[in-house]
Amino acid sequence: MAKTKKVIKTKKKIHRDIHSGYFYVQASFNNTLITATDDNGNVLAISSAGQLGFKGAKKATPFAATIIGKNIIEKVSRYGLKEAEIMVSGVGSGRDSAVRAIITSGIGINKITDRTPLPHNGCRAKKPRRV
After folding, report:
1. Residue 8 counted as domain residue
2. pLDDT at 2
3. How many domains does the chain have?
4. 3-state secondary structure of 7
5. Is 106 exposed, middle or buried (0-12, 13-18, 19+ CB in 10 A)?
6. Considering the entire predicted model, what is its pTM?
7. How far from chain centre, in Å, is Cα 112?
């Protein structure tokens, strides 16, 4: 009886050459997240403070946000990203340092937009207390 060999099929790595994209920075009080996408919105890379080993209150610090920015640039560099726009949302302390880390990487930044939601009139106020 002849022995048969198993053939394992592997997927080819697709090399995408992307010239422009977006960085979405979400800075909350508890964490900072950065997502890199191409022009169509397809996610290229994601990085967060928790993913890099920060725990508890250290996740929302500017230092953690700087390291997240450097990490996402390393992940995106293999796609050949040349220029990008940055969309920032949230009021956390890491928002400025995350943007600074992306700017210093050498990728051309076309625009920085703040997309933090602001209430126009807020929720309905409580009725006055009767004494």
Report:
1. no
2. 64
3. 1
4. coil
5. exposed
6. 0.81
7. 14
